[in-house]
Design goal:
The protein is of the alpha+beta class. The protein is built from 7 helices and 19 strands. Strands 2-3-4-15-7-17-19-5 form an 8-stranded mixed sheet. The longest helix is centred in the C-terminal third of the chain and has 16 residues, at about 285-300. The protein is globular and about 55 Å long.
């Protein structure tokens, strides 16, 4: 099983605390992780189906600061006919009018490079795509990471647990967020697949930050252009230390525009999230808090630009961190909920635009 959640943020999905309140994360880590319960099971949970994915926290491993790199965006090469991705009997059903699709009849790991290019473009357009009846969970971890590397450099999370010898995977949080936006080159294409899960609960919500930007008045959009916000890893690192976890790299802060432009399809989108965005450069604290809270509430309360993915065995969700946030509503118990995620971080101009709330094991690609 995934690491057990022992506390949930006291914050309903439709509301945000003030940005100054700092980092909020459901705790999972070495202090609450019970390896025997995970591998052998208990009267409340079965043993993990994929024990080689169970996390470890190696405090002796420290990595240097990330270095800049040039990312190649494969979606630029794709044909919009998607004939290599959606061949044969593939079926596409839109989840909502603004974000999300569900695809059946496609086996992701069998795609050619042309099909992978089209996948990058398709996900950029749909923002979030759920592929059913996949066999990713049965692949060796090396093979899954090899698939991920086509889309970009893999990211090693500085504090989350990861399967032994595979630090590119990690656990995630429960709060509206866009992953590790404090990085100089934050995530892009992301793969999340279910290992174990309950019969109900644990759905993941996704929010379209491009649609949120488009919903603002032209005058308000213009006011946001040129503004920069600081994103911080320090609170996350300190929380990990306080709870007996690891810090694999020294925490950093980065400055990113409030509005980013997608390099493949040219969409503008908001780029703030309450998990890591701390303040707007040049604003007084009360001014920054007020504007950020307005943007957070604007996104969280606009339910028609959100979608919900319900998990089932064999599901792989691919989403574009360029334009989304995500969120997984807390369960009464998160025991038995196991995911693995792969994320691609992006070259300087590429930043997450989708907010999401999710608890998952994650491996990230850096673009």
């Amino acid at each position: 099983m995934a690491a057990v959640a022992v506390a949930n943020p006291q914050q309903p999905p439709g509301q945000f605390v003030q940005p100054s309140a700092g980092y909020k994360e459901i705790y999972n880590g070495p202090k609450v992780y019970d390896e025997e319960a995970e591998t052998k099971g208990t009267d409340k949970q079965p043993a993990a189906t994929y024990p080689h994915y169970l996390p470890v926290w190696d405090k002796d491993v420290v990595y240097p600061a990330l270095t800049p790199f040039v990312h190649y965006e494969h979606g630029i090469d794709a044909k919009p006919s998607f004939k290599n991705l959606l061949a044969n009997n593939a079926e596409v059903v839109d989840l909502t009018a603004t974000i999300g699709a569900e695809v059946s009849g496609v086996q992701l790991h069998q795609l050619t490079n042309l099909g992978k290019d089209e996948l990058a473009l398709f996900v950029a357009q749909k923002k979030v795509v759920a592929f059913r009846n996949q066999d990713f969970a049965n692949l060796p971890i090396d093979d899954a990471l090899g698939y991920a590397r086509y889309f970009g450099r893999l990211h090693i999370h500085p504090s989350s647990g990861a399967p032994k010898d595979f630090p590119e995977t990690r656990t995630n949080s429960i709060a509206w967020h866009s992953d590790v936006t404090y990085e100089k080159q934050p995530p892009g294409t992301t793969f999340l697949y279910l290992l174990d899960g309950p019969s109900s609960g644990g759905d993941t919500l996704f929010l379209n930050q491009a649609a949120a930007y488009n919903r603002l008045s032209p005058a308000f959009q213009k006011r946001l252009h040129g503004l920069q916000a600081v994103h911080s890893a320090h609170e996350q690192a300190q929380q990990s230390k306080d709870r007996g976890g690891v810090v694999r790299r020294e925490p950093i802060t980065s400055t990113h525009p409030l509005v980013r432009t997608h390099p493949t399809i040219g969409e503008k989108a908001l780029f703030v999230n309450p998990q890591f965005t701390r303040h707007i450069v040049g604003f007084k604290k009360e001014e920054s808090d007020y504007l950020l809270k307005f943007l957070y509430d604007h996104m969280a309360l606009s339910q028609d630009i959100q979608t919900r993915v319900r998990w089932a065995p064999g599901t792989v969700v691919v989403w574009d961190h360029e334009k989304t946030l995500d969120y997984t509503p807390p369960l009464v118990s998160l025991i038995g909920l196991h995911f693995i995620v792969a994320v691609v971080s992006l070259f300087v101009v590429k930043i997450s635009f989708i907010l999401h709330r999710a608890r998952a094991f994650v491996c990230r690609y850096e673009l």
